Structures are given as C-alpha cells and as structure tokens.
User: Which sequence fits this backbone?
C-alpha cells in the first residue's frame, strides 16, 4: 500500500524546507515520489508522461519529483501506476485549498491501493495572524483540514507571539496536533510519529462534504467565475509576501495587481462586468 502525505502551507511558510528535512531524515530507503501540484501552471518541458501533464525530475536523494497540471486525479493514477511508490508526498500550491487536494486523493483512494496518511500544514509563526486576516478562507482552509500543524520560524518568535499563534490555530482546528519546537531541535522521526498518530477520518469526511457544498454553490456560471477570480487575485497578491518582508502590502501594489488580474480575467472569459464588480 502506498501512503500519501499532503504537506500544505501558505506561500513563504517553509513547506519545501520541511519536506527536504523529512526526506533527508525519515524517508531514506523508501521508494518516494514528491508531487508539486500547481493547478493551472503551463510550460511543461518534455520528459516522461509529458502528454499527461506530468513533469518528472530525478532528485539527488533518489526521490522522483513530479509537477502535475490539469486533471490532478487522472495524473495521480498515472504516477502510481508507473512508479508503485512506498510513499507519495504532495506539496500543493501555496494558495490552494487543502480540502480540494484531499478530495482528489480520496477519489483516487477508492480505486488504488493507497492510503491518505498525513495531513500536514506548515505555518509561519511570525506571519500567521496577518495572513489569516489577509487571505481568509484560503489560509484558514489549510489549517482547518490539517491533522498536524507544524510551526516554522518558531525560534524567532517571542513566547507571546507563539502563544497567540497557537490559540488562533486552535480556534480554527482544536483537534490538530501543533508542533512548536524549532526544526533544528526536533528529529524528523519525532515529527512523523506525531503525524501518523493522528486520525484523518473525520477530516476526510469533512473534505468530501465541503466539496459537495462547493459544487452546489458553483452551479451558476457567475458564482463559479467569482470564485475563480478571487483565487487568481490571491495568487497574485500573495507573492508580495516574501520570506524576508514584514508582510505589508501597499495599496498601490494591490491596485496594480488587481488591475493586472482583472485584465487577464476579462481576456480569458470576455465577461462584460466591470473590473470593480468582478473583484469585489
């Protein structure tokens, strides 16, 4: 049976660094596939399964790194069938909803010999409060559906900052295990023990119900377009939050980003509504 772990986290949280730590310290010797799931990305550079939208990169650790685009579920079947890995690590897009990726894996789980194992969200302890306010449901969804939340930059946070961060996470998800120990002070084996000690059944049921409700909400074209436009908007603006910055986004920069996104949205859909209406 193949274990599937989803390692979620907002842009700049440090999920790639976390994944590297786990690969180096825990998963050595396992037949491992890392999937970087960037919905909507274009420009596949050839290689095996190019036509299916899968870019394969051999990593030094022996791990196979894939970038899936398009039909994520179908492409996941392709990867499982080709490589028969012991474990798959999925790193979703920084502004993607954890529940959406979960639903795709749950569907695959019904047809393949795989198990949705760990639901991990990496959260920047120094920026969590600002990102919760700035990005709302897209940030909170990654916390709500996690079974384990791993804090990054906790070594740079004051006790008061750390306490506030934990309380805010617990207000969204009071059942998730929260790891606050600095990464240099905790072994990957200890983290994995916590992750695999959590029960994901309730979160899986929640994700399926959430997908059903979203499908009902998106029955009209207008509602679906609004959701897509907002996701595009967040994807553009979230890139302004660099690891080294203070998380501040100027009104001028936001206005510029919104204008760019509205132009792109109009070009793709030819929607006649004004840009202001689209991005409200």
Assistant:
């Amino acid at each position: 049976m193949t274990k599937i772990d989803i390692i979620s986290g907002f842009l700049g949280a440090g999920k790639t660094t976390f994944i590297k730590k786990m690969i180096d310290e825990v998963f050595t010797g396992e037949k491992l596939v890392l999937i970087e799931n960037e919905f909507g990305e274009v420009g596949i550079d050839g290689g095996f399964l190019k036509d299916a939208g899968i870019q394969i990169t051999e990593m030094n650790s022996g791990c196979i790194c894939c970038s899936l685009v398009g039909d994520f579920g179908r492409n996941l079947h392709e990867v499982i069938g080709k490589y028969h890995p012991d474990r798959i690590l999925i790193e979703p897009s920084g502004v993607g909803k954890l529940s959406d990726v979960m639903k795709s894996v749950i569907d695959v789980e019904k047809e393949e010999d795989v198990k949705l194992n760990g639901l991990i969200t990496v959260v920047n302890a120094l920026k969590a409060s600002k990102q919760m306010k700035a990005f709302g449901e897209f940030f909170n969804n990654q916390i709500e559906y996690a079974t384990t939340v791993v804090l990054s930059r906790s070594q740079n946070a004051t006790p008061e900052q750390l306490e506030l961060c934990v309380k805010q996470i617990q207000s969204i998800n009071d059942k998730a295990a929260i790891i606050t120990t600095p990464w240099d002070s905790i072994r990957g084996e200890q983290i994995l023990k916590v992750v695999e000690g959590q029960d994901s059944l309730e979160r899986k049921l929640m994700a399926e119900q959430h997908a059903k409700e979203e499908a009902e909400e998106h029955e009209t074209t207008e509602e679906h377009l609004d959701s897509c436009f907002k996701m595009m908007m967040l994807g553009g603006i979230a890139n302004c939050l660099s690891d080294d910055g203070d998380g501040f986004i100027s009104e001028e920069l936001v206005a510029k980003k919104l204008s760019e996104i509205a132009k792109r949205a109009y070009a793709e859909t030819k929607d006649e509504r004004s840009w202001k209406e689209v991005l409200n």
Remarks:
- The mean pLDDT is 74.
- The chain is about 50% helix and 20% strand.
- The beta strands are 2-9, 32-37, 54-58, 64-68, 87-92, 114-124, 148-152, 177-179.
- Residues 71 and 181 are 37 Å apart (CA to CA).
